Structures are given as structure tokens and as C-alpha cells.
User: Fold this.
Amino acid sequence: MRLDASKICFITNVSQEEQYENCVSYIKKLNIPYGMTVEFRAIYDAKSMCEGYARAQRSSDAKYKIYLHQDVMITDKNFLNMLVSTFRSDASYGIAGLIGAYSLPQSAIWWENSDDNQVGITIDTAYSDDGVPYRRKLQYTSSTFPIEVAALDGLLLATQYDLPWRSDIFHDFHFYDISQCFEFRRKGLKAIVLPLTKPVCEHWNEHGTARAPYYAERSKFVSEYSSDIWSVRPFRMSVILLPLSVSKELFFQIGQIKQQFDPQQCELIVASPRLTDELRAKLKEVSVRSIFSESNLSMAECINKAIKASTGEKILILEDSCIFAPFSFQSMLATLPHDIPAIVGPLANLGQFTSLLQALKNSASYSYHDYDSYCAFAKDWAAGLYGKHGIQKTLLIDAGATLLNRKAIEAAGLFDTDLKNDLNRMVWDYCLRIYQRHGVVFLAEDSCIHRNANNARLPEDEITWKKKWGISSIDLCHSRIDPIKYIDFSKNPSTVLEAGCACGLNFIKIKNHVPDIECTGIELNKHSAAIAKLFANVYAMDLENFERPEWHDKFDIIVMGDILGHLKDPWQAVRNMFRLQSPGGEILISVPNIMHFSIFNQMFHGYWEYEDAGILDRTHLRFFTKKTAQRLLEQAGYQIRSINPIQWFSNRERQVQEFINKLRPLLSNEVEIEQILSEQWVIVGEKPEEK
Assistant:
């Protein structure tokens, strides 16, 4: 039967008409998704739960079917919208419920699990020892994302595919629900608990369970699914540890992992080219499954051997210098998608070049002195007390804690063994390859790890990196200017142009705020442009001499970060941008400040030394002060909205102040002190609205 995606069917085995009428009255108050209809199938003479459900299933062509107990009242009016949107978000979701368990205990009775193995929220009936019913709120997990489980309770089960109910096995009213979960899993589909932060229904079960039929059905269930029961897991994760030596941190890490993950759900693999006999012996004592330690192997080769040996759907590659709180990895796991190639990284107390993206903000303002205080900090951070709660796409993540799914391995393959021992560059390389395979890199901003040391940057691996990608690893993550701090997104921009877009990092940042924005880039470096093309339409153009009439008045946002100083005629370039700017749109420019005190200091000592980077970058052709940069925009027709200093202070602040005090009497009264303290100027201009 072809299923109709515009229909939702409620199916109920009815034995008490009054209860069912009450149940339906609540359903009729629900908000119905736009363009959809609701129908009902009530079965009054069911021989068993499976037989009744099977009969109703055959009678309806609705794609979305909700199998509901007659004593359940759905109280959340938005329940149907949430249910349909959840199913539409992932075709692998087969069956969904409100409460269940990650895995089955030895008894095969899901609620005999420990509380930490149970998932979901509902309001249910419980019974006292004397048989008097009382209501209770069952809350094991509050989640804004679906959680994969082994078993669901049958009080409410929803499906987006029709699979036969096992009426050939179950002839009573028990184990039908867990059986159906297992049937979906046998078809490669998932059983999930719906994303719930509060109860959506009340379940008033006034009937106890007859023990003899219940245990008879249980025996049938165990007989049919004995080979599946112990293998079903919400996720199976492989943790690959990369120790460089015998250390207490390594074994502390192993202890953390063993505390946080069920051994049946997680395997632990150690990979290192530097393992001693002593370390191998100690690792065997703590039940590490696999050790790859050939001395002639590079770090990349060790990791690849571990990945090949792993069985997890999710793979966590962890440096031995990293310490983590339980909720940090819970957040990372929740962020990692199932259906596309993906990598997830956390925030960290320190990092490499990508620390601009991945380092904890205002790191100097927090402190912790031991593991417990770090966990307290991480918990507060996750709760939003110190940082913004959320998930962001990013270009790269640092090594340290790298979580990837099996689809990433299938799409991008293994780590590049030419990048032998520099773990950061291995991970950055892999991030780019994931994007090339239509995957994504996420930063879980509500998770944070403590990293004791950076992975060393090895010159030989930098040479290999540059040969492969055509640019330095520094240039890769260099965004020149962060537009997010200065752009007014309340104007709902729909188009952005970045002149000098480098590798496209800013496009990712902007799309985190405006997912549907149209991104266009101009970049002369062909290697950088090749990467930026993963995120935008990128062109190679002469900013001073080009004409694109089709772009006139098109772009709501224009970004020119640190490029005007490299042009022969920056004034013409800005005039060209003005023609492309939509009325009311904003331009963002950044220029180095030639009035910075370090330049005065050089000249007072008889120097004007060009450098590889900075204010006196040897490729600079033009230099600006605050006033000349402001005039550059005004002469093109822009109105100045803000002028923002980027200040830098050396670690010899006292000496700096002494020099500035000597310099100050030589300056005009019109020159503010910030004009010699600012290394850069970031100026926002607006094109006037047409009259």
C-alpha cells in the first residue's frame, strides 16, 4: 500500500469506551500540521495488542501512525508538529516513543534497568503495596534531540513506515512494543525517544499486570530475539587514546571513560608508536582491547590501524593530555549527526591557530585547581553561565578531542599518512576532506575540555601540508576580520560579498547566524579560493578594475578585511563596492594603523623594517590612519556607522606607557591616545537609502 504523507492515523485497541472518548477529546484539541489530516481507527474486539494493531494498520494508508493506549491523554497541543518534524528530519527514524531504555537488562524487562539507562519523560500511574494507584512523573532524560534506544514503552508508539506486528508470536497484551522496536532495528531503522523537555501526555493505567500471561509472552520474546537483545545499543563508541608515555593522566583518562560509558557500549583502543613494554603491561591490566605500538609507525599510521580495528558507530580520538567532564562528551555526542559525514570538537582552555574559533572566551577570567572544580566550571559553562549555549559550524577543529561518525570514515577514508606526526594538521586536513565530501564540521560550544599541552607543530609536516593544500596552515584559519562582532544581523541580510575571502571561514560564521544567506567571494589566491568554493560562489577579480552590472545594488553586506593596504588604488576599489552595495547595506573594512606606537618607536631609532606580517607587511602598498580610513569610505558615498579600535598591549606594559608618555607632547591635541594604541581600525559604513 502506498502511504499518504499528508495523513496521521491514531490507532487504539478499545476495551473501555469512556476512557477512549476522553483520549480522543484530547487528540481533537491538538494543533494539526499544515496541509495534514487526522483519522482514527478504534479496534474493539482485538484478540491481542499485535492482532488489533495489525488489523488497523492494514486499514489505513496514513504514513504517520500513532499506536495509543486508550488511557493516554496527550496534553501538549504542539505534539503532532514536533512528531512529524522529527520524522521528516531523518529517514532512518522508524519508530518513536516517549519513554524507553538504552538497552535491555538480563530479564528483558526494560524498566528493570538502572535509572541512568532509561530515557524520556511521561506522567504515569504507579501502585502502592496495597494496590492503591497514585500518579508519578517519570523523568529520566530531558533532551532537545531524539535519542536512539533499544526499547520503547507501548503507551504511545509512532511510526513513519509500516512493518507487520508479530501477531504470529504474541497472543496477549505484552512485549508487543519491544518486539516492534526490534523488528524496526532488524530492518536497519532506529527506535528513538522523541525530543522532550517536559511531559506531553498523562498515562492513567488502572489495570495491573497478570503475571502468568506476562511471563509467557516474555519467554516468547526472549526465544525470538535472544540473538539481538545483548547487541542492541543506543550507540557503540570507539575511543582511541594517543599516549606518548606512561603517565598518570593516561590512566586517569581510562578511568573516566570506564566510568562514563557502559563497557558493552564502548571499546577502548590505545594507539601509539612509543609504547614501552611497561605501558603495554599496565594497559592490559585495565582491559584495553587493542594496542598498536609498532615503533616504526607514524602517529597517523597508528591512528589508521586503530580506526580499521574499531567497530563503533562513533569514534573519539583523544590526546592523553585532555581531561573532560561527563557532560562535555554528552554534548559532543548529541551534536554529532548520524546521516552525513561529520566531525565534532569541543571548546578548550587552549589550542593552536584555531583557538580563535575553539578557545574558551575570556580564558583569563576563570580558574580551577583540580578535577572537581574543573567539572563544576564545565557544568556551569554548559548551563550558559560563562558562555553561549549552542552548536556552530566551523571550518576546522583542533586535535585534542575529535569525535567523528562512521559515515565520515566511509566518505573521506583514513588519515593522511604523509602528515606523519602532527595531529593538529591531520585533523585539519580531515576537516577539509569532510567538507569536500558534503559533510560538516561542528563546534559543540556547550562542551569544554581541559588540555594540558598543545600538539607540537612539526616543520616537516607543515611542508607537506603546504605542498598538499597550496597555503600555510596559518593562512587556512585566518579570517582577516571577524564580521560577526560588527554586522547588524537584525536587518535580516540576504546577500554577502567578501573581497579577499581567503578560505571562506567568514562565510561559515555568517551562515551560523543567517543559514540561507547567499555568499559570494573574491579571492586571488587559487588555493584559498578552491577551499572557499566549498561554502560560496568565489571569483578571481581585480577589485580596482572590474564591472559587473548584474551585481549593482545587490549585496546587503560587503566585507573587506585587511586587503585595502595591498591595492594600488584602494579608493577606486571602495567606489566599486559602493555600486554593488544595496541601499541601507553595510560595508565592513579593516586596515592596519600606521600611527601605532610601535611604528613611532622604530622610526625614532632610525628603522622602517618591513616584515612578513603585521602593520609593515612587506606586501603593503598603502597605509592608513583612523582619519584617512574614515575618509576613504566617506568619499565613496558611505555614512560612517562605527569606528572600532583593535588594541594590542605588549607584555612590557610599563615600558610601553613610558614611551607613550614621551610621545604624547609631540602629538596634536586632536589625536586621542587610542590612535597610537590601536593596531587596527575596523570601520562600518552604510550606503544611504535611496530617496
In short: The chain has three domains: 4-229, 237-468, 483-686. DSSP finds 22 helices and 29 strands in the chain.
